[in-house]
Amino acid sequence: MHYNTGENPRLTMCDVNDEWTVVIDPDTMFWALISNKRDLQTTLRDEVIPRYLEVKDVLAEEMKKFRFEVFPTAVYFNAVDRCNADCLYCYIPKPLRSTGRKMSTEEIRTALHRLQDYFSQFEMDGRKPVVVFHGSEPLLVKDSLKEVIDEFDGVFHFGIQTNGTLLEQEDAEFIMERGVSIGLSLDSPDQKTNDHIRKLMGGGGTYEKVTRAIEWFDGYEGLNVVTTITKYNVEHLPQMVDFLHERGVRAALMNPVRGTQPPAVQARPDIEKLTRFFIAAVERAVELTRSSGRPIVIGDYANLVLGIVAPLGRRLMCDITPCGGGRRFFAISADGNIVPCGEFIGFEEFRGGNVLASQRDIERALDSEPFRKVRARVVEHIEHCSTCAFRNICGAPCPAEVYAVEGDMMHKSPYCEFFEHIIRHAFVLIARGDAKYVIKEKDFDYKYKIMA
Q1: What is the spatial order of strands in the sheet that 30-35 belongs to?
Q2: Per the database record, which ranges form the Radical SAM core domain (predicted)?
Q3: What span, in angstroms and rounded, lies between the C-alpha atoms of 424 and 433?
Q4: At CB < 8 A and 24+ separation, what contacts does 356-359 make?
């Protein structure tokens, strides 16, 4: 049986490490891990290609729908421009954080009613659309948020992403009682480092208040701690895993800083260090989960593992091409403007409509030129990415970051080499049978095979 010529199957072979080779069709995300102890050609002919031919058409159709369907299920809602913090890498322009507006309770309510009307058109299989109150700092209007969370409790699943400094214990109890998801930002287990990166407007830093808030949530399943990786904290990632696990945190996000503003570009970590310490953090999380029976998962890495073993099961929409911005979610700014993603707040050219103007502005925004422009950014059109075997695992994020730096979106990710290394690491983790410590394997019907 032939391959990679004429009408024959097209499969790419990549070295994973000295022990494993992966054979992959990037377009369908069919793959097989083959031990280097095996005869590659015999394994391809007798096992891999016959299985590939059985499933490739179904996989191709599933991937096409997953990648290109415009079906928003989530909204990132910035009800306030202002912030009480002055983090050195913030993606919100500083003038907005200092003097920007706050939505009134009535404006938030109006926007939520219009979102409710919009989502009511769609069959969502019993799932509620998600509304995440996001930064700048949403708890500057926490009384308004509590009011609308109670009012729309049966309509949306709510989340809050906060720097944590305005949380009181009664707020934490409110959040847990109502099943609201909560993300707290903490950049290092070392107070001096965290407070250098995450300063408060009036002086000092966020560390003490955030660590106190983590204790209030005491293992709450809806808690996730977000660490933005910069050159200042990259070496602390493994210790951060220990720190969070000791405090009962089950889920962490460790995101390399997005360079959508000049100070953030200056804060980017060295790629070699980022790769080394991120993988060390992943390995520490796996070891703690295995040895303690109490899980801690690094969500960014888990999403890449899902992108390999169960692409349609991915939760985070940044590692997809086109990304989820303007397709699976959109964002609303404090003046009501609708943009494809919160990373585009501050870029006037990416405004598609205004939720406070009219109900129809949501539909208009989704069909607007800025939104279509973001959806048109696919790896097939990016020179460096178009022939990469990992192109539909990585997704070349982030279009807003690339646009901010390059002036257009059709360039590779500044973290390309990092993604390449951690995707290879993910294949190694799968090969050694450790995916179960990163994702819930029982939830998925896998179509891959490991050939030892």
Answers
A1: 12-15, 20-25, 30-35, 449-451
A2: 69-295
A3: 15
A4: 356/107, 356/110, 356/111, 359/114, 359/117, 359/118
3-class state of residue 45 by DSSP:
helix
Nearest-angstrom CA–CA distance, 419 and 393: 9
Classify residue 20: in a domain, yes or no. Answer: yes
- Residue 87 in domain: no
- Cis peptide leading into residue 398 (ω within 30°): yes
Nearest to 74 by CA among 265, 324, 393: 324
Instruction: Report the distance separating Cα 343 and Cα 78, nearest Å.
Output: 11
Angle at 63 between CA 62 and CA 69, to 5 degrees: 90
0.90 cut: is pTM over it?
A: yes
Domain that holds residue 2: 1-68
pLDDT 10s digit of each residue in the chain, 452 long? 788 899 889 999 999 999 999 999 999 999 999 999 999 999 999 999 999 999 999 999 999 999 999 999 999 999 999 999 999 998 777 777 777 889 999 999 999 999 999 999 998 888 999 999 997 899 999 999 999 999 999 999 999 999 999 999 999 999 999 999 999 999 999 999 999 999 999 899 999 999 999 999 999 999 999 999 999 999 999 999 999 999 999 999 999 999 888 899 999 999 999 999 999 999 999 999 999 999 999 999 999 999 999 998 888 899 999 999 999 999 999 999 999 999 998 899 999 999 999 989 999 999 999 999 999 999 999 999 999 999 999 999 999 999 999 999 999 999 999 999 999 999 999 999 999 999 986 656 666 566 75
Q: Do residues 182 and 166 touch, judged by C-beta distance below 8 A?
A: no
How far is it, in rounded angstroms, from Cα 336 to Cα 100?
A: 12
User: Which token pair is 212?
Assistant: 């106190």
Using CA atoms, how far apart are residues 348 and 33, in angstroms rounded to an integer?
46
Reading the block at residue 238, the tokens are 């493994």
Q: How many domains does the chain have?
A: 1
Q: In whole angstroms, give the CA distance from residue 393 to residue 390.
A: 5
Residue whose token pair is 């422009």:
373
Tokens of 360: 């129809």
Q: Tokens for 239, please give them.
A: 């210790």
The token duo for 240 is 């951060």
Distance CA 359, CA 361 (A): 5
For 318-359, the DSSP string reads: SSSSS-SBTTTEEEE-TT-EEESSGGGTT-GGG--EETTT-T
DSSP state of 202: T
- Does residue 143 form part of some domain? no
- Label residues 71-110 b or e (16+ Cβ within 10 Å = b): ebbbbbbbbbbbbbbbbbbbbbeeebbeebeebebebbbb
Residue 64 belongs to some domain of the structure: yes
